[in-house]
Amino acid sequence: MGWLSVGGVGMSESEVEIVILTGAGISAESGIATFRGADGLWEGHRFEDVASPEGFRRDPGLVHRFYNLRRAGLGEVAPNAAHLALVRLEREWRGRFLLVTQNVDDLHERAGSERLVHMHGELKKALCEGCGKSWEWVGDLGTGDACVYCGRVGVVRPDIVWFGEIPYGMDEILGALGRCRIFVSVGTSGSVYPAAGFVDLARRVGARTVECNVAETSASGNFGERRTGLATEVVPALVEELLGSAW
Ligand code: APR
């Protein structure tokens, strides 16, 4: 059992909890568009139209088409070295570990991640606004589809957390952030709360904070350290460093 000096405090590795937050940037090298970069997803759409409850009520067909295209695209992409490095960290780190993703693609689970929370939902799930239940869904979704639980039609939507809605898993996420000694963000612009505020919660408990991104973000100043570069390069290197306890 390794001993770590985290912020000058000696503690056994089993006590050290790591929380990782990922955003669209970790999937970019797999071929999935980010939201706010050049030709990002929000370039072609107003998020109010395709990522809000009001937009879904206004034009459910447009919203279904937007997510059907993204869901169909999952079959053409694969996890990359950054996803796989986080699986290695989860398996080899002897302390507690939680991976929180803002992404709705399935690349983390296809890479092998298990201690995973999709705080913004998942493309491969459907949700019934009638009874509140959700279930696995891989094909196209449309206004004519019925809830597999209550049978209602016209109330089934992608199980995505839209703007103005409460993210999933917040109790578990906030609990882990309150205990963590290391917080790493990968490939997120730090534009959307509550995820953008996680680094502040980690700092408040004295955690080491590391931002991995190809570029500086509006949140960069809140991190103690930065690893600038492609996720497929900087994440494997950071995992090697963390596992080597080369503090
Ligand atoms: N390696 C590392 N970082 C990258 C790479 C890469 N190969 N490519 C892009 N990035 C970085 C960009 O510099 C940017 O900071 O990834 C970030 C992507 O930012 P956004 O497109 O804003 O995506 P994200 O931060 O995940 O958005 C958060 O906003 O629209 C909502 O719900 C949506 O979950 C999403 C949330």
Defining key terms:
alpha/beta; 21% strand; six-stranded parallel sheet
Our count of helices gives: 10
Order of helices and strands: EEEHHHHHHEHEEEEHEHEEH
Question: Beta-strand level of the residues, as a percent range?
Answer: 15-25%
**Molecular shape:** globular
Could you give the topology of this structure?
Layout: E1 3-6, E2 9-12, E3 18-22, H1 25-28, H2 41-44, H3 47-50, H4 53-58, H5 60-73, H6 81-92, E4 97-101, H7 107-111, E5 116-118, E6 121-128, E7 134-136, E8 156-160, H8 170-179, E9 182-186, H9 198-204, E10 208-213, E11 225-228, H10 231-243
Parallel strand pairs: 3-4, 3-9, 4-5, 9-10, 10-11
Antiparallel strand pairs: 1-2, 6-7, 6-8
Helix pairs in contact: 6-10, 8-9
Explain what the structure shows.
- This protein has 247 residues and is an alpha/beta fold.
- It has helices at 25-28, 41-44, 47-50, 53-58, 60-73, 81-92, 107-111, 170-179, 198-204, 231-243, and strands at 3-6, 9-12, 18-22, 97-101, 116-118, 121-128, 134-136, 156-160, 182-186, 208-213, 225-228.
- A hairpin with a 5-residue loop joins β6 (121-128) and β7.
- The longest helix has 14 residues, at 60-73.
- The mean pLDDT is 92.
- The site of adenosine-5-diphosphoribose has 24 residues, from α1.
Quick gist of this model?
32% of the residues lie in helices and 21% in strands. With 247 residues, the chain is of the alpha/beta class. It is globular and about 55 Å long.
